[in-house]
Specification:
By secondary structure, this protein is of the alpha/beta class. The chain has 13 helices and 15 strands. It folds into 3 domains: 275 residues, Rossmann fold; 90 residues, no CATH class; 85 residues, no CATH class. The longest helix has 25 residues. Pfam families: AAA_21, AAA_23.
């Protein structure tokens, strides 16, 4: 059997929102710092969030998709949405009685959705979308024996193809301990409270409830234990309530139905079997009663808390972990962003992490690791995703200017200065005239005129822009614009 994790190496998105057809490569952790980190960078409206949500749908299953997708999510509403993820080979044990002890091999996951043609049988209100999520079989597509040999049918001696019922996606079946996927969207508060859809906090509370119930069973606790957990503040609060509305309500309820048992109706503060179901996070000093909820601490704090919570949960649980994070820098000051970058790099040793970001503070720290994909719009209105080659332009790479230019196609004065100065230092070009002669040898002509103290000098465009930056007091020359800065920057890069 193959116990490899179901980390996605290649993501294919067809007909989902701004994507007509696109393939994106993702990094897979190998134990080294930042190895499992993939960055999505690019300007607004280029599909970074849509790619994260495509990954979330890939693992989320049919029910989630049918309750969230709408016809507006289709790039072309007459075609189906198709999302596929290629993985290393992993094995799934059969759950059918007839094939007990057998397994089959998979090489990925697939999700598809299309507008529904007819109502679901037995349902008054059907979702307008029909969705499917399933495992992708390897090239063999048959059952295997526990020793790795193909399972052969007794009568014919042929291999037996995998029953389609077993292909329905269940992330708990992947590998020996399943895979846990956490999607941190831009709604930070949602991850620290319970919600209509299962949130990160819900998953944590479910786990805490399970541990609590397990302890109850092991200790055979019952009335005595319930009494202990409702002492002091709970008793005082409940007593206050029961003396008033609560007591009257139970009496009237009992009288109405003529049922003495209904007198036990109580206004409860917590579920005694699921005490964490109504839990919330708050800052409270040990000897104080006032609680400051995380919502009051700021949305930047909320993401860090959610990340630390899932980390603690995952450390005590089993299974592989995938984190999808949209703009983690939101509402975090630069120092906190750098600390968050270090946390993500550490997590990416063993977890697959996909991050969409616009922050040069985060990117400057992260782009040296994993994989970076740059999203951009094409002239025809489509979306293009290009994987950026590793390494930088300078020995000190990446600089802020370099990050902004590569990730967001934004030329800056700082980056131009870095390029020009590095060119001089690298090739021992002491004067600007030396730089222009070097550039000429690279096919970059001296075709601009620079005027200083009434004297004209022919210079390259790169030197002209450099002079404009360094000598703003010289008003004898037309200044540069952003387009000229962009062209000059690209020329300097080509000359390196």
């Amino acid at each position: 059997m193959y116990d490899g994790p179901a980390f996605i190496r290649e993501l294919s998105i067809d007909n989902f929102r701004c994507f007509s057809a696109e393939t994106i490569n993702l990094a897979v952790p190998n134990g080294s710092l930042g190895s499992g980190l993939t960055l999505f960078v690019g300007n607004n409206g280029t599909g970074k969030t849509s790619a994260l949500e495509a990954l979330d749908y890939l693992f989320g299953g049919r029910y989630k998709a049918e309750n969230k997708l709408s016809i507006k999510d289709f790039n072309d509403f007459v075609k189906p949405i198709s999302i596929a993820g290629k993985t290393d080979r992993f094995s799934i044990k059969s759950e059918l009685e007839y094939y007990k002890g057998k397994y089959f091999n998979c090489v990925g996951l697939k999700f598809s959705a299309e507008p529904r043609d007819r109502k679901q049988p037995g349902k008054l209100l059907s979702s307008t979308i029909s969705a499917k999520s399933h495992f992708s079989l390897d090239e063999n597509a048959y059952y295997n024996e526990s020793d790795g040999q193909p399972h052969l049918q007794t009568r014919t001696g042929d291999t037996k193809n995998v029953d389609p019922r077993e292909l329905t996606l269940d992330t708990g079946k992947v590998g020996p301990n399943g895979v846990n996927v956490f999607y941190f969207d831009k709604n930070r508060a949602r991850h620290l409270v319970s919600g209509t859809y299962r949130t990160t906090f819900d998953a944590i509370c479910d786990d805490l409830n399970w541990r609590y119930q397990k302890k109850l069973r092991e200790e055979e606790a019952s009335a005595d234990y319930a009494s202990k957990v409702t002492k002091e503040i709970f008793v005082w609060a409940l007593d206050t309530a029961q003396k008033g509305t609560g007591a009257k309500l139970s009496e009237q309820f009992s009288d109405f139905f003529d049922n003495a048992h209904f007198k036990n109706l109580r206004l409860e503060l917590l579920s005694l079997l699921e005490p964490f179901s109504s839990a919330f996070l708050a800052v409270r000093a040990e000897d104080q009663i006032q609680q400051v909820t995380t919502r009051s601490l700021g949305s930047g704090v909320e993401l860090v808390l959610a990340l630390l919570l899932q980390r603690l949960l995952s450390d005590t649980a089993k299974g592989d972990k995938i984190l999808l994070i949209d703009e983690p820098e939101m509402h975090l000051h630069p120092t906190a962003q750098k600390k968050l970058a270090d946390l993500l790099l550490e997590e990416a040793k063993t977890s697959q992490i996909v991050v969409s970001s616009h922050s040069p503070y985060l990117l400057q720290r992260l782009v040296k690791f994993g994989t970076t994909n740059v999203f951009s719009s094409t002239a025809t209105g489509g979306i293009e995703v290009e994987q950026q080659a590793g390494g930088g332009l300078f020995p000190w790479s990446p600089s802020f200017g370099e990050v902004n230019f590569k990730a967001f196609a934004m030329p800056t004065v700082d980056f131009h200065n870095e390029l020009y100065g590095y060119l001089q230092d690298k090739h021992n070009l002491l004067k600007c005239e030396d730089v222009d002669r070097f550039l000429s040898g690279k096919g970059i002509p001296s075709d601009h005129t620079w005027v200083r103290a009434g004297k004209s000098q022919t210079v390259s465009e790169c030197t002209y822009v450099r002079h404009c930056i360094h000598h703003p007091e010289n008003t004898s020359n037309p200044t540069y614009n952003e387009a000229k800065l962009d062209v000059s920057t690209k020329k300097l890069i080509s000359a390196l």
